């Protein structure tokens, strides 16, 4: 049994980790911490755990975790994980950050967009970017993984077959995403106040969202050349899920929806969590709710010569906790799908 | 491995059975049928199964099921299960009806409320009422089980400690429930049209809902005397979940919320799916979404001498498919909680 | 033109007042105040006003309002209105409190439930209870009105015909309500955090809600004798609306749904905002969204001898701002329906 | 008083017309028809009208309408309005089609996308495209108006300042919209079944939506040259509202968000229903719910040289019935804003 710790277990990603790990056959959760809720049972924060007295938040103590855990997940605000990582890793523990601190190989990009000095540039360079469908080999060898952001996961999985195969241009990709409100976190704010959110589609972060450089980094690596794109997120009235619509301009006249769909099916043929939809179907977020699956579709628009790729994920699972566990499974040589095969929840 | 069949797998309860059975360690689903969708993959109806080619609806053929299944679940409109049950049972198969055909021991009540002649009065008398927390022994011995309705499950579990202990009166209980829209089924109708449901609380079935006599039958059996009550359901803008508020008048002056809560904790002490909430907490449906748990609370209103008991369940799990599997586990001597221990899904 | 002021315009009831008064033919809004947002345009708080630069929050200054307003509405936390009322009224202004400070004729009830000393017992005694359908004459003569709570409005309008006619018993009425989340106010809290509210029905305030004594006061006055009842509110996933289901036990065997419906139609025959639904229809909140109407239905349950009355209102209109304007119209001799005749918003 | 008729009053756009016209000072609704509901009161279909016996659906009879109406609105499936228009206009009545039959000046585009022969090519050529902010003069002179589609309204208003001023390129515009479910109509279907829609973002119509050529027609006219673009709609879990995000690539390096915002403010300076948001604000649909306003914002993305324009409308008001009334006001020389000045409904 792998001994697992979670830092920041009182947030949504942390609690989702707990839900998924509780059903994982080869894992024992030995330490869950919360600065604000130390000493309290998890069920005080998340009533779905009522009746289960097993889980209690412990104080934040990286050294104790280093001793009691083979792997530690952090689900904390940016800037916090970079302080914790060396302490865990110094005792041989592996480290998976669900936050942003270890997503960028080039710290200067991080520092520019997050306006914070990175104190662990070496670890940052060492860290694997934990999107297994695209970077599995790096993850398998990694001591430390930066788990992708929710939007980047959906966007890159939608676009990878086009970018990796040199079909998409380096300039001109337009990505538009709509996210459930859980993506804005567990802390009540006007933006996620129920009366403000219900029956409301809200634009936010237009031209400034911090997931933009993360998507560009990933696609640039796939393209072998710098990719620049426009990314626009939106908040829509649902709790979970992200739908991403990505338009690739000018892919040339020789394509068809059938050919692109086949390309995607070939590209993701061996991926257990990727479902490429047939030509008569388009994705919907509910189909992947509470699951680690990602559904993608692709269309060729003959009128304009564009490809339109669309994906759906659950932002808290494939976009956070589920993908982190998938990375853990790979890092420790477990079957990659362990604990992650539940289908989406419908209706 | 138990060989399991599902009749009516294209409805919500049927598909929820499939979701839960897919994660059950001791079960193999060998036959799922749908009259309208025979030959089609389940993923055509429920896109959460896309990428899983395993499940295909077969034609409705009770005799084939009788041969290929150790137990058959029916999730069909009333009147249909009574035709299927004898065919399954004649070959030794056990039978669990999620619908209404085998919930009443006295067929005349069924016939009065459902306005349909019951063709299997003997089987109806033989059938156990599958609410394990209250009638586990009968279920354990049963060849055939009538799985409770969703509202009756929530209402009886809220009231049982008061009724069984003779604290509740035979007359005067007032039960008010609010249900998610999945309870109205998979068929689009004006009542469950999205623009009509969102931001809308709708009264329906006031003084006439067919779950009324079912609740009365169960509570009368617990009381050892006829119970008459008022039950009022409502449809509210969510997909899953039922919250029930039950008021017991005139329970006397000697009580307190603490004493009632203790009574409930004692009553349900050994029940794996029952969570009696502490005095400082009240139930919410989201805490049990997608789970087989039932949360209950009880308050004593000293001003009026009433007890107010409240419960929440997921109407498709503890109110339908999950409870049916719980019954199956009991009928076949499996650990009762097998396949049913996932916590609720939050947020 | 009546000169109108609003204290606490930054809350939901205050902003709804502004919305409705902006369409009122005989009113000029001369002063709207907010302690926290003084100096800011209303459109900063409520983006539906963007493009309209007319409304700016002013500082809280009761004496200035007294001079600039013929009538002042307060939509403030309890305890605040009792300090403001004398200042407004000393200059001859009329006063309508949408909050709780002037709802109780007997201050000791207020003090017991709100745990606050009432500093204006004389004004409290003088104030009319502003539910025009039941207490129009008092409102017409009043200098000061305590506008009813949202739940009490729905509950009393549902029950009044039974109580006023001596059909309902003094003991044993059971009222269950479900409210939209706007009723919990504009301040973000865990209880009204979108991810916690969507797809969730939450119990709260069981046996302790402060609207209980207000409903009892009103019904007792109608009955001419003390009424004691059980009131249970719930929070459901919608922004606006309250549905109330009220059960009157033991009204005797001589009734029918037809007879009760006729009784209601007669009782409310002259009321412009009351719609008594026919026997084949039940109320839904969406039908009255954004309107000042109240729909009521009544059923006789012959099995138990109970009457079941149900009502719907928009909690921010008939349950707050709309009713306050209705009171203003009456107090100033305007046509009672002025500015309030818009139908509900569907879908 | 203008005598007004509505054909297809039982649909959402038709009923919204009725709601808005009921509050219009210079209009008398003299004839509302519904094929399926003739003889029934409107309140049977839309319970927000309960208590108002005034409105009853009449049989479909264009000649009767021609005599009793100065202007007729049609809100009917495509193909139906082209049969009605000549009958109304032959008696001198003006005609406003909320559907699609008179939106295209070039019938061949209509015929290609709607796969239906157009029987009134002359009227089609004569008809004004009823987007007053862009084509007011044509509307003012028109006997017949094709009211724009909901998506085209939002998309064109977002893009017009860029296109009209030659800033946007003819190729490469990418428009992504998300719509409330009322846009899919009043008829229950799986796609708008509540359990399928709630907590779900659904892609549909990718690369094939029929509003694409309508947007292209309008923008081409503004540009004075053919515009080709990609339009992708989505269905999100709310009843009303459309948010549109439009990306214009390669507008050059000389721009800034401030400059673009000023351009938009100048462009729409005299428009009563257009609100150009400041640089620190982005649009949200709820701000315009139930109103005829359109909020737009624009951002310059210096990294890519793109402009990102965003708009929100209520699909049933500015996207259908409200805009139709705005057109009527213009056609008859009434104040353009008559009956349309209500602000959005929040919360």
Description:
Four copies of one chain form a homotetramer. Chain A has twelve helices and 13 strands. By secondary structure, chain A is an alpha/beta fold. The model of chain A has no long low-confidence stretch (mean pLDDT 97). In chain A, helix 1 (12-21) packs across helix 12 (317-331), helix 3 (62-68) crosses helix 4 (81-89) and helix 7 (132-141) runs parallel beside helix 12. Chain A has helices spanning 12-21, 42-45, 62-68, 81-89, 107-114, 121-126, 132-141, 150-164, 194-197, 211-223, 257-267, 317-331, and strands spanning 2-7, 27-33, 71-74, 94-97, 128-129, 144-146, 171-179, 202-203, 228-235, 242-248, 274-276, 294-301, 306-313. In chain A, strands 8-9-7-10-13-12-11 form a seven-stranded mixed sheet. Chain A folds into two domains: 2-126, Rossmann fold, CATH 3.40.50; 151-315, Dihydrodipicolinate Reductase, domain 2 (2-Layer Sandwich). At the A-D interface, strand 7, strand 8, strand 9, strand 10 and strand 12 of A face strand 7, strand 8, strand 9, strand 10 and strand 12 of D.
């Amino acid at each position: 049994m792998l001994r697992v710790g979670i830092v920041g277990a009182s947030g949504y990603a942390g609690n989702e980790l707990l839900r998924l790990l509780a059903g994982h056959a080869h894992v024992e959760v030995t330490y869950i911490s919360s600065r604000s809720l130390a000493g309290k049972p998890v069920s005080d924060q998340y009533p779905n755990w009522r009746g289960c007295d097993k889980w209690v938040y412990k104080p934040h103590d990286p050294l104790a975790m280093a001793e009691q855990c083979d792997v530690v997940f952090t689900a904390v605000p940016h800037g916090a994980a970079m302080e914790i990582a060396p302490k865990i890793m110094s005792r041989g523990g592996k480290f998976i950050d669900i936050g942003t601190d270890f997503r960028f190989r080039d710290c200067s990009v991080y520092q520019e967009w997050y306006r914070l000095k990175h104190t662990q540039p070496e670890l940052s360079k060492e860290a694997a970017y934990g999107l297994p469908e695209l970077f599995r080999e790096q993850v398998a060898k990694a001591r430390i993984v930066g788990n992708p952001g929710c939007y980047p996961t959906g966007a890159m999985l939608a676009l990878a077959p086009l970018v990796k195969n040199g079909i998409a241009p380096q300039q001109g990709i337009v990505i538009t995403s709509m996210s459930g409100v859980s993506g804005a976190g567990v802390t009540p704010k006007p933006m996620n106040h129920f009366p403000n959110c219900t029956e409301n589609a809200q634009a936010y972060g237009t031209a400034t969202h911090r997931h933009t450089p993360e998507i560009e980094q990933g696609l640039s690596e796939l393209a072998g050349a710098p990719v620049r794109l426009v990314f626009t997120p939106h908040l829509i009235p649902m709790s979970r899920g992200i739908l991403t619509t990505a338009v690739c301009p000018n892919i040339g006249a020789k394509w068809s929806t059938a050919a692109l769909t086949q390309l995607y099916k070939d590209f993701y043929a061996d991926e257990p969590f990727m479902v490429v939809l047939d030509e008569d179907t388009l994705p919907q977020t509910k189909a992947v709710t509470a699951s680690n699956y990602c559904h993608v579709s692709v269309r060729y628009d003959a009128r304009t010569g564009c490809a339109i790729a669309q994906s759906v994920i659950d932002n808290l699972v494939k976009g956070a906790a589920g993908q982190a566990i998938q990375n853990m499974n790979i890092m420790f040589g477990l079957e990659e799908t362990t604990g992650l095969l539940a289908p989406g929840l419908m209706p």
